[in-house]
Design brief:
Elements lengths: L4 E4 L6 E3 L1 H8 L3 H10 L3 H8 L4 H11 L4 H9 L5 E4 L1 H12 L4 E5 L3 H10 L8 E4 H4 L6 H11 L6 E5 L2 H9 L3 E4 L3 H11 L3
Parallel strand pairs: 1-4, 1-6, 4-5, 6-7
Antiparallel strand pairs: 2-3
Helix pairs in contact: 4-5, 6-11
Length: about 200
């Protein structure tokens, strides 16, 4: 079936995101850095922010559990911008090519609602989207099927005609289970090949 719309994840598809970018500046010992990111500031903890928990609340809860690391935990909120790395220019270039061809483009991102406002203002590629569903605003996160259903309903997307791009396999599998076409992002070159196969570029 012909693809008529494309949905992009944002973190590690359009821009690099990794807490290690921040904490490697604050924790010079590699083993201690690994332990901190495995046991304290974890993706599981941060997912609550993506579901709508305010950062201040998340920082308070985790700091009470790990008072010796309170300053480092607080940095996750206060220095959030430093968890964001370079724009993945190859992906943005593909977005621009699709936009020039009139292909509708959407974003579906696990992202804190309070951090999204500044991010959307500061990154020009966000303006290429015809619409974005932000998990923190919906209080739903990928791979919950409900967030994909909300995306489709809000923007009138037919899953079988929509290509969904994400760097996490479990998110792509969840989309495919609902009928979307899926692409697990590993780099712009592989994505370009998929877009060419669909006839979009």
């Amino acid at each position: 079936m012909r693809i008529t719309a494309v949905v992009f994840d944002i973190g590690n598809v359009l821009v690099r995101w990794d807490p290690r970018l921040l904490y490697s500046k604050l924790i010079p010992d590699a083993a201690e850095l690994d332990r901190f990111l495995t046991d304290i500031v974890t993706l599981e903890w941060h997912t609550h922010h993506d579901k709508g928990r305010p950062f201040a609340e998340g920082v308070r809860i985790l700091s009470e559990q790990h008072p010796d690391h309170a300053d480092l935990i607080r940095a996750f909120d206060e220095r959030w911008d430093e968890t964001i790395g370079p724009v993945i220019e190859g992906t943005v270039a593909l977005m621009e090519r699709l936009k020039a061809k009139g292909v509708p483009l959407y974003g579906l991102t696990n992202f804190s609602a309070e951090k999204w406002v500044a991010f959307a203002r500061d990154y020009a590629f966000v303006k290429l989207f015809d619409g974005v569903v932000v998990s923190g605003e919906e209080r739903l996160v990928k791979p919950d099927p409900a967030i994909f259903e909300r995306l489709a309903s809000r923007y009138g997307l037919t899953p079988a005609e929509t290509l969904f791009i994400d760097d996490r396999d479990e998110n792509v599998r969840a989309a495919e289970a609902l009928g979307f076409r899926g692409h697990v992002f590993t780099g712009p070159e592989g994505l370009e090949a998929t877009l060419a196969e669909t006839g979009l570029i």
